[in-house]
Structures are given as structure tokens and as C-alpha cells.
Amino acid sequence: MDAYELAEKKAQLKSQFRKMDKNGDNKLDFNEFLTLMSGLDAKTAHKLFEKVDKTGDGTVDFDEFVDYIYTSQRTTAGRHARLMAASAVATDTENESLWDTCMAVYETYEGSDKKFESRDFKKLCVDCKIFDRRFTKNDVDIIYSKYKPRGSNKIDFEAFKNCIRAVATKKGTSTEAIQAAVSERISMGVETTCTKADSVRFHDDKSSYTGMHTANEFHGTGGSADRSPDSRHARIKEAEAFNHGEEEALDWDKVQAVFLKFTDGDNYIEGREFNQLCQDCGLLAKTFNRADADIIFNKVKSRGERKIDFDQFKDACIGIARKRNNVLSHVQTLIMESSGPQRHGVTQADDVRFHDDKSLYTGMHAM
């Protein structure tokens, strides 16, 4: 280090020394010295203070301090002192009146455990929106590590103030600007991040229906069809209107007879049996397939139930007629012409061959 650099370092250190010298006597007591060397723990700072205090009067004057720093180049304590002197941040642009507000914000971010840790400091920087190209989230960790006591992850308010000053230096702005940004959080507190709930949509708001639900007349009735006779009669008339004819629905007794053949004796059919009825009665077509049968079955069945009765089956027939673009009587006719459940996928047994049927012998056995 040449004479010019040494003089520059001493001038910088002199400025910091005067800031810590509260009573202006050009001397620092131990508490003032500890504030200046905020990166050291109390034990290390006390040892360093005793070595610097050559006169033993319990204070350190500026000359003693500078002489120790620049003549103790081989000692650990001297290295600590030089590092702290080099890392000292300027306080010329501070606003002393803002520190009280900053302390209130500091205590808010401490939380109930009264610990201000690195994550709290980073959260504060995020909430204050002070990140830019010069000051990134990686710089937060570097600055915090610089001023936290060794062996601990929490800092006191004096170390927090030094962090604020270092942030201002890193950003190339005044400390007062960072103080002001921190002070604004006093009325807002810690900013919480949570998932915003979707807007509430009621099940009977038909304007929000999409796809197949747009034309589902059973929405708003708990997922089940209206069972009133008048409503069924209206739907039957509407089903016949697909063919624009005047034909009335046929008698339901014969349809019910076929329906009962597909039940298990309890006058109800399940979705699988309903699908089989549609197949065996020849109701399946290009415009009405097995998937359509499942959809119609789920429309007419009561919520929470797995089976439908004959009245609900009538509603299903109406839905089938609409899907096939037929009149209801045509669907009834197809059902009535069915003889009941058909056997599907049955493997036919081979012809029985008896071992004593000599006409079947071959080769040497034929002799």
C-alpha cells in the first residue's frame, strides 16, 4: 500500500470514527467501539479493544486505533480490524429521523420469535421492491453474511442499519432512499402471498354451462329429472316434435314388459343392464352410441343412486328419441319387438366324441 492509498484509507476510517464518537472527544469507549466493529462478536471485540487501548484508560483514540490497524499486519485481531475498516459504509446520506420508523419495521419482520434472520431481510427487500440490476437476491445474502455475527443467523438493529447502508451503496443511491422504502412498510406490514380463490359459480347459473351441460334441462334439480306427470307429458310432446308429426306415444305396458326382462327381479335396472337393453333392442345407431346411453342414464337417475325405475326409464326413452332424431313411438316399437336379453360372447362347445366310436379312429387304430 503506497502513501496515497494509506492516506485515503485513514481519511475514510477517520470519517467512520467521528460518526461513532457521540460526545466528540475524539475517543471511543467500548460501546462506541463495538458499534464501529459491528461485524465482531462481543468477546472478540473486547480482546481487540484491550490491545488497541495502549494507555489503559478504557478508551481508544483515533491515533491508537489507526496505528494498531496498520502495524498489526500479522495478527488475527489486526486482520479483523482491517476488514471492518474496509467494509465500513458511509453514513453521510442518512436521515436520522427515519431510523425510528425503520426500527418499527424491523420489529414487525422479526415476528413473534424476536429473531431477524436472513429470510426476514430478504422478505423485506422483496416487499420494498428494491431489487434491480445492481442489487439482486444474491447480493442480499452476501450483505447479510457480512454483518451478521459469527456463528449466528440473526442480527440486531445496529447490524440491520449497516445492511441498509450497504444496500444503498450497492444500488448506488442514498441511504435515505432505502430508509424511505423500508419506512413505507410501517403501514402495510409483512406482505402475504396466497392463492386467490376462483369466483363462486352456482350450479343453477346456466350461463356458465359448457359442452353437453348447455342443453341439459335437468341442471338445477339436483342432477335428477322432474318426476311430475305434467313435466313428462310435456317432454313426450317435445320428443315427438323432432319428426314434426302428430303421432302420439304408444301404450307403455308392452314396453314395461320388456323392461322387466332386463331387471334382476327388483323392477330396477343398472347402467350395465340399460346399455345391454339399448344394444339388444337395436337402439344403437350412428347418432346414438354406448357413450350416449351412459350419458342419458346418468341424467335420469337420482343423485347417489345406481339404478333407475320404469318411470325414469320413460324419461330415458325420451332422451334416446331426441338423440336418434326419432319420434318416441319409434323407440317404443324397437323395444317392444325385442324378445329380451340376448346372450353375447358365449363360446360354442365342440362336438362330443366318444372314445369307442371306431369310425373316428385313424392310422393303425383304424385296423
UniProtKB/TrEMBL annotation:
- Which GO biological process annotations does it have? microtubule bundle formation; microtubule polymerization; positive regulation of protein polymerization
Tell me, what is one Gene Ontology molecular-function annotation carried by this entry?
A: tubulin binding
InterPro entries in UniProt: EF-hand-dom_pair, EF_Hand_1_Ca_BS, EF_hand_dom, TPP/p25
Is Calcium given among the entry's keywords?
Answer: yes
EF-hand domain segment(s): 8-43, 47-75
UniProt keyword annotations, A-Z: Calcium
Q: Which residues form a coiled coil?
A: none
- What GO CC annotations are associated with the protein? microtubule
Q: Which PANTHER family match?
A: P25 ALPHA-RELATED, TUBULIN POLYMERIZATION-PROMOTING PROTEIN HOMOLOG
Regarding protein family, the annotation reads: Belongs to the TPPP family.
Q: Give the protein's recorded name.
A: EF-hand domain-containing protein
Organism expressing this protein natively: Alexandrium catenella
